């Protein structure tokens, strides 16, 4: 794993925020499992808590842990992941 990725992963594990490049913009990342880190994203971005932030997951199993997928969402996830498909749950 490249050194910068290792450093970012280490920071995320300790509740820090990191800036990551995406295909269009730079994003602010935090561990979704750390409520304080997620709250800091809202604070840093001056974002209202009634406007949810996306959570990126690496597997269908993690998606199931974080939300309820209906049968259509399950079918899409199984057929399209990994890939550039967003499912809102």
Describe this structure in words.
The protein has 89 residues and is mainly alpha-helical. Helix content is 43%, strand content 9%. It has helices spanning 3-13, 35-44, 60-66, 71-80; strands at 18-21, 26-29. It has a two-stranded antiparallel sheet with strand order 1-2. Strand 1 (18-21) and strand 2 (26-29) form a beta hairpin. It is globular. The N and C termini lie far apart (31 Å).
Main beta-sheet strand count, sense and barrel state: 2 strands, antiparallel
Please work out how many helical segments DSSP would assign. Answer: 4
Structural class: mainly alpha
User: How much β-strand is present in the residues?
Assistant: 5-15%
Question: Biggest sheet: strands side by side, in what order?
Answer: 1-2
Low-confidence stretches: none
Number of strands: 2
Q: What is the 3D shape?
A: globular
How helix-rich are the residues, as a percent range?
40-55%
Note the gap between the termini.
Answer: 31 Å
Helix and strand string, N-terminal first?
Answer: HEEHHH
Please tell me how large the radius of gyration is.
14 Å
Q: Overall pLDDT, averaged?
A: 92
């Amino acid at each position: 794993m490249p050194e910068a990725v290792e450093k970012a992963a280490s920071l995320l594990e300790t509740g820090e925020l990191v800036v990551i490049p995406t295909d269009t913009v730079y994003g602010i990342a935090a561990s979704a499992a750390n409520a304080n880190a997620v709250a800091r994203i809202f604070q840093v971005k001056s974002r209202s808590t009634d406007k949810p932030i996306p959570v990126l997951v690496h597997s269908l199993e993690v998606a199931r842990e974080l939300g309820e997928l209906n049968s259509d969402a399950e079918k899409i996830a199984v057929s399209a992941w990994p890939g550039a498909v967003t499912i809102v749950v």
